[in-house]
Each structure stands twice: as C-alpha cells, then as structure tokens.
From TrEMBL:
<dbReference type="InterPro" id="IPR004358">
    <property type="entry name" value="Sig_transdc_His_kin-like_C"/>
</dbReference>
<dbReference type="InterPro" id="IPR036097">
    <property type="entry name" value="HisK_dim/P_sf"/>
</dbReference>
<feature type="region of interest" description="Disordered">
    <location>
        <begin position="356"/>
        <end position="383"/>
    </location>
</feature>
<dbReference type="Pfam" id="PF05231">
    <property type="entry name" value="MASE1"/>
</dbReference>
<dbReference type="Pfam" id="PF02518">
    <property type="entry name" value="HATPase_c"/>
</dbReference>
<dbReference type="InterPro" id="IPR036890">
    <property type="entry name" value="HATPase_C_sf"/>
</dbReference>
<feature type="domain" description="PAS">
    <location>
        <begin position="432"/>
        <end position="506"/>
    </location>
</feature>
<feature type="coiled-coil region">
    <location>
        <begin position="551"/>
        <end position="581"/>
    </location>
</feature>
<dbReference type="InterPro" id="IPR000014">
    <property type="entry name" value="PAS"/>
</dbReference>
<feature type="transmembrane region" description="Helical">
    <location>
        <begin position="43"/>
        <end position="62"/>
    </location>
</feature>
<dbReference type="GO" id="GO:0005886">
    <property type="term" value="C:plasma membrane"/>
</dbReference>
<keyword id="KW-0472">Membrane</keyword>
<dbReference type="GO" id="GO:0000155">
    <property type="term" value="F:phosphorelay sensor kinase activity"/>
</dbReference>
<dbReference type="InterPro" id="IPR003661">
    <property type="entry name" value="HisK_dim/P_dom"/>
</dbReference>
<dbReference type="InterPro" id="IPR007895">
    <property type="entry name" value="MASE1"/>
</dbReference>
<dbReference type="InterPro" id="IPR001610">
    <property type="entry name" value="PAC"/>
</dbReference>
<feature type="transmembrane region" description="Helical">
    <location>
        <begin position="156"/>
        <end position="176"/>
    </location>
</feature>
Length: 834
C-alpha cells in the first residue's frame, strides 16, 4: 500500500514541477504589462498553461498553479499583504481548476478534434476567466488607493488578459501533445512552416516600428486562414503564437494600428484583436479538421464496405439495454434477410441452425452476464454456428465481438464472417487425415513421428499389433527404448547414430533387427528422414520400417543357389576341359596308327597294280575311310587348340581369288558325281587379306564341301567373291535342303547337327562350321548364315578385312574346263559395288 502511494506521488511530481516552472516563468513575463504593479496584466499567457496542465495532468496538480503564482509575487517584490497575494493566487488557481472541471464534465477531447470541443474550450475560457478576474480585482480594490473606483477597469483588463492567454496558449499545448500522432506528409509540414512564417512576418509588418499607424490589422487574417485550412488546429495554433507575440510586443511598445489611442484603450483593442483572431482561426481550423476527418471516414467506410462485401463480412451492433440492433447490408445478406433488414434477438436466434441454437444462446447469455457483473472494460464474445436461409442454403458463420458498458447501457459490437469454405476445407482435411490414418494403420509397416530429442509423438497401429503392445507403451518414450529394440544394443546404437545424422538433414537407411511379439526377431528395412519447415529447418524426424525377413530369407536362398550354380558351372567347365584334353590326347594317339594305315594302304595298292581287282578295291576303301577318319581327327585337334588358345596362324598376304579357285577344283569331282553345278563369281581383283593360307582354304573348303554335301543331285552351288567397303566378302550359297529357322542360332556350335538321329543321312561330328567360325574370328572377320527354311537352300557369308586395296588393269578368267565338270569362273565387275 505504501509502495503504491509512493509510486503515485512520483508520477505526479514530474508533471507538477513542469507546470509550476512554466506557469511561474509565463506569469512573471506577463506581469511586466500589469496595470497595477504585480497584478491585473492585460496579457497573461500563464492562465493558458494552467488550464492545459490541469486538463492533461488532472485537477490534483492545482498546488503547482498556486505555488507558481506565489513565486511570481515573490520575484516581483511588491508589498501586497500576504492575504491579498494568497487571495489573488487562489483566484487564478480557482479559474484554472474551474475551466478544467467544466471541460472534463462535457467530455472534451484534449486534442480538440471536434467543433463542440473548441466551442466548449472558448466558453470555459470566458467563464473561468470571469471567476478569476472577479476574485483578483476585488482583492486589488481592497488594497490599493481608489481601488473600488477602478474595479470595473481592473476586472475587464484582468478578464480579457486571461481569456487571451487561454485562447492562444491552451489550444497550442493541447493540440501538440505527444499523445496525439504528429507525423504528417512533407506537403503538410511545408504548408505549416510557410504559413507560420508568413503570419509572423505579416504581424511584424503590421505591428512593427517601421509601419505608420494605419488600420491594417485585418491583413493578418489571410495568413491565419491559410494556416487553419492547410494545417488544421495545429497549424492555426502554431501560426497564432508568433502573430499574438508580435501584436503584444508592438502594441505595448507604442507601434502598430492601436498606438494612436490612449494606453488603456490601446491594450483593450489589443485584447479584442487577439481574442477575436484566435477564436475565429481556431473555429475555422477545427471545422476544416472535422470535414477532413469526415471525408476520410467516408472513404474508410467505403473501403470497409467493399472489403466486407469482398470478404463476405458483416458488421452489427446491438444495444442490450434498449434492444435496438443495427446490421450492415452485408450482415443481412449473410443471414438471408435481404438488404436493409430489421432484426431483433429472437428473429436472429431463430435463424441459427437448430443443432447449434442452444450453444449460441448459451454463449450470448454468458457474455452478457459477464459484462453485467464485470468492470467497465469490453468483454469478448465469439461463436461459430450454422444458419439456414429461406431457400434451404446452409452457411457456416463466425460471429465475434465485444460487449462494453457505455454509461447506463450495454452495447454489443461485432462482425460476422462467412467461414463456409473454411469449414468445408477443415472437414475435407479431417476426412483426408482420417483416411491417411486408416491407410497407415492398415499398412504392415512402421510409420511414426519423432521430435528432435527422439521422443515418439505418433505411431501407426500395425507395428504395435505385431509387437503385442499399445500406444501407451510407445508414445512419449525415446524411440530407441521402445519394445522393438529392447535387448538389442547394436540396433539401439545404430538408431541413435541415425538420429544424429538425420537431425543434420541426412536421410539414413539400413537393415536392422527388431523384436516382435513372443520375442521373435525380424529383419527390418529401416529409414529415418528429416521433416523440414518452410524455411528449411529440421523440426521432426520420420522413422519408417518394413519387415523384410521373408525377402532376406529368399535372398539367402538365392545366394545359396547361385553359389551352387557357380560350383556346378565350374565343375562343368572342368569336365569340358578334361573332355577336350581327352579328345586331343586320343586324337594324337590315333593319328600315328592311322598314318601307318594310310601309308601301307597306298604301298599295297601300288604293288597290287590292278592284278587283283578285289584287293585293289578293298585297299581303295581302306584308304578312303582312313582319310575321312584322319580329317575327323584333325577337326578334333583343331577344336582342342581353339579351346586351349593354342591355335597358330602362319600369317601372310593371301589372294582369296586363288584360294577359291583351288577349293573349287578340289570339290569339283564330288560335285560332278552328284551332277551339281558349281559357279564362281568374283570381281577382277577384290583385294588381298592378311592371314594363314591353309586356314583360309580350310574355311572356304568346309563351306563349299558342306554345300555340296547338303545339295541334292541336279542342284547348284554358287561361290561369290566381292568387296564391300574395306572388307572382302565370300558368299557360298546352295539350293540344298536348307536350315530350319529354330536351328539357325545353333549352326556354328560344335557338335550340333540339324539331324542328330542315329539314322541320319549325312555323317560327321558337327565340327566343320564351328571350326569355320573360330578361324574367321581369328582372322578378324565375321561369318553369318541365312536360310528361308527347309528345301530352300542356305547362304553363308564370310567377311575379312582387306590388307590393301588395288584393282587390276584387266579381267582374269579362271578356266578349269579341263577338269571335265560344269565349273565356271565369272568376272563380274559391275554386279556389286563396295
């Protein structure tokens, strides 16, 4: 209690000191023109400071006014009786207190923003100054010689001086108080400065020493009107101060339009001039301010109306005491009443949806009861409810407002907003969240939300059921301490490390072991991701996991099968190598006795010399089959060399034209025996290749002999030698039995034959074409085969890189007609182009 009183005293002391100082200084300055030394000044600005100080600081500051007047007496040094000084000081104080009391009772705004405020101020100045002048002049009349005879003049001078001081100083102090916003535009400040300077200059011109005594006092009014029109009350008070100061100084010094008259009349005219100028300028200024504010208010109301219509917002007021209500057109439209509606409480409550009506009625009742039992401040009210229009349309409205006591009445003021879209959006969001929750709850995967400290905030249902626990066992706990990781220190450590990394913005993913119901262990594909806000800061962590135990088991089984397959493949490759080595060994071992058989069969045939036909015939059969067996052995040896990478080529420059001719001459007897036509077509000089002559001859011989073998009697085999860009192309085509489409991909595989049955017509091991492919690739070439199917022949194409490109000067014709078979070599340099 004592501390509260001390604080109130400290808050009062500062304003009181300011009021005392300003009143004392202005009182001392004004008393220099007093008609009676020490009292009764025709110019007394201290009265204006006293009125403004008590109006702003409160009537409790009246001792500062009294003390200031007494201090002025003390400084002046006049020998008035103490009771007279106290009476005069009391009169000045009563005048200031009375004026402030009147203005407070009529609720004057200190900023003087209304015409009624300004008129009330002028009236208070007139009345309160009369009280002070009456007390002061009566006191002076009692203490000076011939005082009562001079009392009327003293009273008039005193009263006019106080009125003038109040009209000039009080509005200046009130309007420029910091409690009211001062900031204006540059244009306003420019007008203020120019009008104030102009008013002061004009006043100096009129009341200055260089001006003859002409009646030009009216010239000040245009400058004061400019200040009032441009700056309002603040502009008028600012311009009035230098104008009044110049007029007082000039008139008291004997200058200006009032100088020619007697001194006491001169001061009366000055008082009248200043009072009329101040009153008229202030009234004009406040009217201008009111009009300006009225225009701004209309503009703001129009903006508010447009904003209310655009935002579907209405405004309403309801006087709870009288029952009168006012609704803006927008409010009426929201309730479906139509423009210009008249609504009372019962009609309004009936428009509320039946399901929300009781709740709305209760909230209004509680707000009213709170306002009736509470203090004078506003009491808030807010509610959301549905209303149903006549056409059946239902809207969601939000009504918010405040209930305030104004005098003896309770007034409720508020706004109504259409929140239908928001409610629909909230409902859709709620449904979406519920749908997501249902989806997450039915996912057999862990999905949750953690804070940055690792506390579980949310968790879906599936992992809880899998572990036979409830949300109570998880929510609010550290994630690594939950049941899933209990007894698994390695998993807990990895999760802690993942949390540290995720808080830094990383997405962490790894496989981890988790505990489920019955202490069973599963493998989880776990991921921890950061959740960021709009500014990119990590605010939460999102753990998720999927049971991948079955997948891991399948992966392990697949790995086992792959390892088994690799082992089987390695074993097969080893067996293949052993087989190749065995075939190579057997072939080498068979080669020696077979060579002896061939040699002795030839010796015996020479010695028989045709004497014994049966012997000669038998030896021929032995020789022929031994040569077939020798070729089979040589093929096996070649395949062995290919498998082991031991094939050697005797590389030289080879003319394929000669090779083809030699091969054709060697197979010509076989073709002639089957009446097969052999035809060779080549460019004059297709180019030489770099390779092994014998191996290239083996390639062409295998292709041509195969063609002859699989071509029936009367067929045709064609060998073409051509150049395609930087390649030599050898084409062997026949009209034989052809190749099945499904066997084409396997033609060049070893030991593969289209007919592998024991009763097949054509023999062989199925190595010839495999040898062709290996030899062609060793020479840097390619081989391919095409066939239109069984009975439609086949075409083999070999391409080898050219050693050098050159063309002969003339055509060459290979004539092998002396062999006695249908073999033709045709030089056709225009049939194909490279």
């Amino acid at each position: 209690m004592a501390r509260s009183g001390k604080a109130a005293w400290s808050r009062t002391l500062g304003p009181a000191a300011m009021l005392f100082t300003s009143y004392f200084l202005l009182a001392d300055w004004g008393l220099q023109w007093a008609t009676v030394p020490g009292a009764g000044s025709p110019v007394f600005p201290a009265a204006g400071v006293a009125l403004a100080g008590l109006l702003l600081g409160g009537l409790r500051l009246w001792p500062a006014v009294f003390a200031g007047r007494m201090a002025a007496f003390f400084l002046d040094g006049r020998s008035f009786p103490m009771w007279a000084q106290c009476a005069i000081a009391a009169g000045n104080t009563i005048a200031a207190v009375g004026g402030a009391w009147i203005l407070t009772r009529v609720h004057v705004r200190p900023a003087l923003t209304r015409l009624r405020d300004m008129l009330a101020l002028i009236g208070a100045c007139v009345v309160s100054s009369a009280v002070g002048a009456t007390i002061g002049s009566s006191t002076l009349a009692s203490v000076i010689a011939h005082g009562f005879g001079r009392a009327p003049v003293l009273w008039l001078t005193w009263w006019a001086g106080n009125v003038m001081g109040m009209l000039v100083v009080t509005p200046l102090v009130l309007s420029w108080m910091p409690s009211e916003p001062i900031g204006r535009s540059f244009r306003w400040w420019l007008h203020l400065v120019l009008s104030t300077v102009t008013a002061g200059a004009v006043a100096w011109f009129i009341f200055g020493p260089h001006m003859p005594h002409l009646p030009l006092a009216w010239l000040i009014f245009p400058a004061l009107m400019w200040a009032a029109l441009a700056g309002g009350v603040r502009g008028a008070t600012a311009a009035m101060l230098p104008s009044a100061s110049a007029a007082v100084w000039g008139t008291t010094a004997g200058y200006g339009p009032f100088a020619p008259v007697a001194e006491h009349l001169r001061l009366v005219l000055l008082q009248q001039f200043v009072a009329v100028a101040a009153a008229s300028t202030l009234v004009l200024a406040v009217v201008v301010d009111e009009r300006r504010r009225s225009e701004l208010l209309r503009e703001n109301e129009e903006r508010l109306r447009l904003a209310s219509r655009a935002g579907r917002t209405g405004v309403w007021t309801w006087n709870l005491t009288t029952g009168r209500a006012f609704w803006t057109p927008e409010a009426c439209e929201l309730y479906g009443y139509g423009m210009g509606c008249t609504v009372d409480y019962e009609r309004w409550i009936e428009s509320v949806h039946p399901d929300d009506r009781e709740q709305t009625r209760r909230k209004v009742r509680e707000a009213v009861e709170q306002a009736q039992s509470g203090g004078s401040g506003p009491h808030s009210y807010k509610d959301e409810y549905r209303v149903t229009h006549v056409d059946g349309t239902t809207l969601w409205l939000e009504s918010s407002g405040a209930i305030e006591r104004k005098g003896d009445e309770l007034v409720m003021l508020g706004v109504i907003r259409d929140i239908t879209e928001r409610k629909l959006a909230e409902a859709a969001l709620h449904e979406s969240e519920a749908h997501i929750r249902r989806v997450l709850d039915n996912l057999f995967a862990f999905v949750g939300v953690l804070d940055l400290e690792g506390t579980v905030l949310q968790c879906n249902r599936a992992p809880l059921e899998a572990a036979n626990i409830t949300a109570v066992d998880v929510l609010g706990k550290k994630f690594w301490d939950c049941y899933w990781w209990s007894g698994l220190p390695e998993a807990q450590a990895r999760i802690r490390d993942a949390m540290d990394r995720a808080k830094r913005g990383e997405v962490v993913r790894f496989d981890v072991t988790a505990r489920m119901a019955g202490n069973s262990l599963i493998c989880v594909d776990f991921q921890l991701a950061p959740l960021r806000d709009d500014e990119g800061r990590v605010t939460h962590l999102l753990p998720s996991g999927m049971d991948i135990t079955a997948r891991k088991r399948a992966e392990n089984e697949r790995e086992r099968l792959l390892e088994s397959e690799r082992a089987a493949r390695a074993e097969a490759e080893r067996a293949s190598r052993l087989k190749d080595e065995f075939l190579s060994t057997v072939s080498h071992e068979l080669r020696t006795p077979l060579t002896l058989i061939l040699g002795w069969s030839q010796v015996l045939r020479r010695r028989a010399n045709g004497k014994d036909q049966d012997l000669h015939k038998g030896l021929a059969v032995i020789d022929r089959n031994a040569r077939v067996l020798s070729q089979l052995i040589e093929d096996l040896l070649d395949m062995g060399r290919f498998s082991t990478g031991k094939t050697r080529l005797e590389v030289q420059s080879v003319d394929l034209h000669d090779v083809v001719a030699l091969v054709l001459s060697s197979v010509a007897p076989s073709a002639a025996a089957k009446h097969i036509e052999l035809e060779s077509i080549s460019r004059p000089f297709p180019g030489r290749v770099c390779g092994d002559l014998n191996r290239l001859q083996q390639v062409i011989w295998n292709l041509v002999s195969n063609a002859v073998k699989f071509t029936p009697s009367g067929g045709k085999v064609e060998v073409t030698l051509d150049r395609i860009d930087d390649l030599v192309e050898i084409t062997v085509s026949d009209t034989g039995q052809g190749i099945k489409p499904e066997f084409l991909p396997h033609v060049f595989e070893r030991f593969r034959q289209a007919d592998s049955s024991p009763t097949r017509v054509h023999g062989g091991l199925g190595l010839g074409l495999a040898i062709v492919k290996n030899l062609v690739e060793l020479h840097g070439g390619t081989v391919r085969v095409t066939s239109d199917g069984e009975g439609k022949g086949a075409t083999f194409v070999v391409r080898l890189p050219i050693e050098e490109a050159r063309v002969s000067e003339g055509a060459e014709v290979d004539d092998v007609s002396n062999l006695g078979i249908a073999v033709r070599a045709v030089n056709d340099s225009t049939r194909r182009t490279g």
